[in-house]
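To whoever is on call:

I kicked off a structure prediction for a single chain this morning and the downstream step that reads the tokens threw a length-mismatch warning. I double-checked the sequence; it's 117 residues and nothing unusual in it as far as I can see. Pasting both halves so you can look.
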Amino acid sequence: MAYDEDLAERVRELLATEPDLSEKRMFGGLAFLLGGHMALAVSGQGGIMVRVGAAQTDELIAAGPAQPVEMGERTMGGWVRVGAEHLTTERRLSRWVQLGVGQARSLASKTAQTRRR
């Protein structure tokens, strides 16, 4: 299944003012990277995967509608999946996009490190 291009465009619009933004096709979806770190991805399985950090993962899953991200038989710590049915409004989508942005921005920029070499 291909990723939802309309959802990708909505994410792109929310990230339009973010500096050092790039996009990369990965794992059947479209990843959005900030400073070289993946913040979130529009998933080929539907919905989005969001980097939230290990400290928030269990809390967000317990509160719903987030689910653990499974890659094969492995659970990806620090990531949650949110189904498209929970992203129908800009307010709902924006909440998850901002969580991913905040987590990615808390990491040292990979692109700045590359430039210094």
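Update from on-call: the warning came from a stale cache, not from the record. Cleared it. Sanity check on the structure: The chain has a mean pLDDT of 93.
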